[in-house]
Amino acid sequence: MKIQKITLLILFAFCLNFTRAQENLMDLQVDVVYLSSDLLTGRETGTDGETMAAQYIVKRFEEAGLKPAGKEGSWFQSFDFKFNANPHAAGGEARTGKNVVGLLDNGAKTTVVIGAHYDHVGLGHFGSRHTGAPAIHNGADDNASGTAGLFYLAEALQKSTAKNNNYLFIAFSGEELGLYGSKYFANNPTIDLSTINYMLNIDIIS
Fold first, then answer.
1. Where are the beta strands (DSSP E) in 51-191?
2. How far apart are CA 168 and CA 171, in angstroms?
3. What is the mean pLDDT, run by run of 10 residues, along the chain of 206 residues?
4. Taking the mean position of all CA atoms in its chain, how far away is CA 159?
5. pTM, whole model, 2 decimals?
6. Rounded to whole angstroms, what are the CA distances from 114 to 2, 9, 186, 199?
7. Helix ranges restricted to H, 64-203
8. Are the beta carbons of 111 and 195 closer than 8 angstroms?
9. Are 75 and 101 in contact (CB under 8 A)?
């Protein structure tokens, strides 16, 4: 009888963990599908599509229990740049990109940075081998997958007993144009850089 009870408990625990794993996988799929949908028109930096992606990231960061850690207590760290599909040409269109920054504050002395870029190449005017008419480049792998990974890790670390570090989650803008967002953060950090333990970058994981 005791063996039967233990066996049932093991089966119940396995089924519970399996169900949670399935739910996590479904959440990841939903995140990737939305971020790579045609609605966001390829998430080119400084476009309405990228802004929609940034707003979605804020929603998911909030759901994961993160707090705003961008400029002046907001979720965003904006930066201005000149967009030119030809990186060797002078001038360009004035645009604004925005990093999305959230903090899991464990009251620790050190912080681990976990980042992923969320922009992509839009309609393929740059950074694409596509030679036909402009077409939406959805960027499911590059890097909706890495962005979805941020949400998964944030939720997991929120529930974790690993409290020796704080965790700063950054969804970077402008990577495809030349690491604009990450460079801007490095030069204009929203936390004390001397407290950073290390950084984990998540890119193309699907």
1. 67-68, 76-83, 93-104, 110-117, 165-172
2. 10
3. 44 45 75 97 98 98 98 97 85 95 98 98 92 94 96 95 96 97 98 97 90
4. 19
5. 0.88
6. 46, 36, 14, 6
7. 146-159, 180-187
8. yes
9. yes
